[in-house]
Amino acid sequence: MTDSGTAAPAGAAAPAGAARAAGRARSAYRGLADDLRAGLLSRRYPDGARLPTEAELARTYQVSRQTVRRAFQDLVAEGLVHRVPGRGTFAAPRGSRYLRQFGSVDDLMSLSVDTTMRLSSPLRRQIDVDAAGRLGLDSDVVQSAAFLRLHDDVPFCHTAVWLPPGVGETLRSVPELTECGAVSTVTVIGLLDERLPAPITDAEQSITVAAAPGRVAAELRCEPGHPVLRIDRLYATAAGERVELAVSHFLPEQYSYRVRLRRGPL
Amino acid sequence: MTDSGTAAPAGAAAPAGAARAAGRARSAYRGLADDLRAGLLSRRYPDGARLPTEAELARTYQVSRQTVRRAFQDLVAEGLVHRVPGRGTFAAPRGSRYLRQFGSVDDLMSLSVDTTMRLSSPLRRQIDVDAAGRLGLDSDVVQSAAFLRLHDDVPFCHTAVWLPPGVGETLRSVPELTECGAVSTVTVIGLLDERLPAPITDAEQSITVAAAPGRVAAELRCEPGHPVLRIDRLYATAAGERVELAVSHFLPEQYSYRVRLRRGPL
DNA sequence: CGTTATTTGTGCGTATGTATT
DNA sequence: AAATACATACGCACAAATAAC
After folding, report:
1. How do residues B14-48 score in pLDDT, each as one tens digit?
2. Which domains occur in chain A, in start order?
3. Please, which positions of strand D sit below 7 A from a protein CB?
4. I want to staple A51 with a disulfide (CB 3.0 to 4.6 A). Which of A89, A233, B121, B178 is the partner?
């Protein structure tokens, strides 16, 4: 047999043929990719393990080989598998465990899994030429807030955020950002992603060393001028609209930044 | 007309029909992706500009619409374009200019575009339990070297590298790594990529702040203990074989690390 | 050594769905 | 309502790499 193929000269595209009990539909290839991703992250496919072939998956999932290929394209792009012609598809080493899976925007959003944030300066209107410039605004008006991030009640990071006025308005009713001292596990970027019409797809980071400014040092309980890791992040939508500038100072004694990089073409 | 399509019931795959004067072939969709990528990086498509439609590209490049789609899939994965159903395909903002295009392994290889490296400690066999452990070796034997990276003859980074013995052997005949004081524009990772059988596809980074160790400080001409940006990089092949550990100390006054992050699924 | 079977890679045609204009 | 444009899905043919024989 050449491909898979029962007969069906032209597949009706229908929501996606196969079963789908609860959740929303998604597409066939995404569903398959989700399944495989789960297997990879859960170590059901250990490091280096060979995954089923395209033909096998096409049979068991009752989809065409092309659909299987489409699913694998995403997994390759995510660095979860690598493929070798004539040999097969293999689970990429090191699934997750103690290592941050991959430097992605979603990672930044889920930073809060085992940390909490405590608001130290509530969201309010402000004039800031520099921040407005970096956000690409015409005027100098921004909205800004500041908070600490804690791990086991110990502060390890101070973050200040600046938002375009319109974007800040959408967060006006969020108590986590308006009541001084509020403790929560939200992230600003997570809140924005739920409220903005366009999803946040890009983040630009700049990482360097800085001397802790007075106020930051006071809140982090270190001496002013103590060397800290400074990370600036500028978030944007796919269309390039900049929606948040965040400047964080991390205590290096308690934090190191990890990323995993992949190669471009394949 | 539904798709593109002249007739040709079953396309002969042939090297790829169209023109190709000099270089090696590649595939049709990669060639198209290369062309579009060049146009995007060169600002021929400015920020937010709308690119030709799938149908248009299929016509002008004499390929099927599927092939155009395949090319766009890569560009989307690279974050160079974003697509909106019913509207079109758009150049992602901020092509390159003063900003490092994207945090990828290739970036690290081409770090040397406007910098030079000067060998301060030639490649030689050595015992190092820690490095061997991080490289996943059974024995404690490694090969190691150290060098400075210069910009305008000013050192801004000190790097030490450790290699598994077998990997180090492949670099034995490279004068840039064996003659003390040698000045060049190579990168260790670039040299390895040319010589190893398997390509290097992964790099894992850890970034933190450190006090400059004595020897590093002396070579960077700063006081010992000066706060510096420390970046550890562990390179591996797709199969997970670790081939190089590099520990770099950057003078933060002259260097900041920039990365651009993209969102996972789309 | 070549032959063959397996497995992924490339290219194309087609049909249909959905979002936007 | 219609046209445009991207998204999904399927099928097919052949190429190229790999491994087993």
Report:
1. 333 333 333 345 789 999 998 998 888 787 888 88
2. 4-91 (1.10.10.10), 98-259 (3.40.1410.10)
3. 3-19
4. A89
